[in-house]
Fold this sequence. Notes:
Blueprint: H1 10-22, E1 34-43, E2 46-48, E3 52-57, E4 64-74, E5 88-93, E6 101-107, E7 122-126, E8 129-131, E9 135-144, E10 157-158, H2 159-162, E11 168-174, H3 175-178, E12 183-186, E13 194-196, E14 199-201, H4 205-211, E15 219-222, E16 226-228, E17 250-256, H5 269-274, H6 288-293, H7 296-299, H8 304-325, E18 329-334, E19 338-340, H9 345-348, E20 363-366, E21 369-376, H10 383-390, H11 392-400, E22 404-407, H12 415-428, E23 433-436, H13 442-445, E24 453-454, H14 458-463, H15 467-480, E25 485-489, H16 499-513, H17 515-525, H18 530-551, E26 558-565, H19 594-607, H20 613-616, E27 618-622, E28 635-642, E29 645-652, E30 659-663, E31 675-679, E32 692-695, E33 698-703, E34 708-712
Parallel strand pairs: 3-11, 12-15, 12-26, 15-18, 18-22, 22-23, 24-25, 25-26
Antiparallel strand pairs: 1-2, 1-4, 4-7, 4-8, 5-6, 5-9, 6-7, 9-10, 9-11, 13-14, 16-17, 19-21, 20-21, 27-28, 28-29, 29-34, 30-33, 31-34, 32-33
Helix pairs in contact: 4-8, 11-12, 16-17, 16-18, 17-18, 18-19
Amino acid sequence: MPASTFAPSVAQRTVFYEELHRRFARQHFDNWVVWAGNETVQIDGVEYEGALARAYIEPGISGVQAQVRCELFVAAVNASEVRPRDIDARLWTDALGRGGRYVPMHLAMDGAGRPALRGNNLVFESEPFSLAQTGAFNYSVEFSADSHVEAGRKEWIGVNDMAENRDGVIVVSPKWVQRGPVVSEVCARKVGARVEDGVFCSGRLAHVTAELANMPADVIYLLPFYQPGFADLHTGEDVRKGTLGSVYAVRDFFQIDPQLVTPLEEVDWQALVEEGLLRDGDIDGMEASELAAMLPSQRAGLDCAALLQAVGRAELRALTRRAHALGKRVIFDLVLMQTSRDCPLIETHPEFYVRDEDGRPAIHRIAWLVYSDVALFDLVFNEPLQQYLLEVAPYWIEACDLDGVRIDASQTVDRPFLKRIKNRIQELKPEALVLGETLCPLHEAVDVPVDMVYALMVDFHRDVEHARPLTDFLEEVHGAFAPSTVAMAYFENHDSPRATQVWRDKYSALLAADGHVCAEWQGVCGGPSADETALQMALLKNAQATLIDASAGATTGTCLTRGFEWGSEWGEAVRTDFENETLLNPELRRQAPHDALMRFYSALAASRSDWPELHTGKVYYHRNDGEGGDVDDRVLAYVRYASEGALLVAHNLDPARVHSVRLRFDYLDRTLDPKLFLDTYQLVQTEVNARLECIDDAWYLTLRPLQSHLWRLF
Length: 714
């Protein structure tokens, strides 16, 4: 008899009613007697367990279907005899509209018309529902055996009231994010910066615009461009960090740092109007054409600060317009945790801040780090403050056509507020990216509702020379995050020293201590000095770390995407150090050996479309255990594979010795025809001799020190 024809059992429903509605108070259920949980959601063929699931869609073009399952245990009933209408279930979710809607759920039945049990638990399935808009959405299951429908008082009991559960979360992201866009971090203050007559002159937004074509990235991430503050309102003292002050000490979230704007006397007002960059209303009560037609003497009578802000917004629009023309997107740093200590909000909204024992805004402290130049927001459950901050990102996205945000220290922000931020942004711009900084233990990052998180690989790249720790960490990442999570991997950023300089110092010491290694490397690099050789070694390590970041993930686990700091691509040794008057050296891009690294970055960015396995494939890590492994555990080797092909990526992490590995590819079950796609030794040699040889059903690969290969296997 089909399951749908079974009549409900009055006796069974009575038992369910007693156990669910009468016997226990909410949140006081005895879970030896009644329990509900194990909510899972299936999306696009992938089943997600735990706190967070992921979906990727093309907003306005295509969505995906989702289906939720949940289990229920009631000791007093014989689960195998339960019929579909003995108990009711429904799913609540806000993925179908603001305020949330209900989706019917049904008891899962087997082919014989009996409940499809999981152990002793009943399993309920929702009707499929569509995920058609980007954002972060909750879902939860409710049960009822109450029959008072006619009286309008049917009672439902949520799984969160029955056991230790919490709402499931589905993060729906724009499809382009799933392909792992390359992200370049840029501090506008340092792009085009110079020293004139002994005085540091800040870089400008216009300088960033001019550099965009040279940045081998899909997404440009701008560090904070807001107006900074330097003083303490209560003491009057200058509390800035360094000589320039921190870009994270925000005085006004809705104003651009005037130092990033072209001086008024250099502005071509007519050009800004003709190009549509200056808009009506940029200066209150004035049309753009009226402002452009003014004589300089007439403009001199206007508010200088307001004019600078109008130019700043126009130049930020020029930046995003140029980026979009190049096929790039631009996101910006959304600071949520603090302001400068002279921010006007301290006086107008003292309730926004955590206070110290003297009643002054508390200094922001994280572990051993003390940020004495900023005042800490009291963000948690502070609705007026959250409402204020919710408007920051939409303001800049609307005003200057920016493409999303990077949320500073997102793991410290309460999840409901992060959800509101993401939804607010993507209601305005469905294709926007919300990138969350997650510099924290993995378990603290797995439920952060953003489109992309951070992969904590900096120290591995900079310090580790053996494969096992890195492989262990990668597999831990795959197990921790929801499948298809995109995590940005990098080896340096504004908080860290330049990795290329760290490597150069390390290799200089190695060459000085070992004459044989020094001679070998000078032979590889064509006989330069030991110092120049150490630089070329550091650039090879830079390329190796970059290739690992680009290729070591898996779409079935965590897909790594590559991030780099402006300067990484030419092997910059000077820290960005935005608090001080340091100058970077972009002129190195045109000088050997840095120009070879630039070509490598550009070629890697251009080649990604030729390697679909990086966006769709699984990963197999070839560990150096037992037969065939590298006994010194210095070779990191893995295969990205899908039905259409397979890529072998192998790296010799040893800066001193050649290593060979024996590899078996039985799991591919295909005839292999290896072709070398990439050899990082091309940075230091015009010709390379690389071979992947098959002998007696095993494959052998030899790698020279710090050498990395990428092979297409079939």
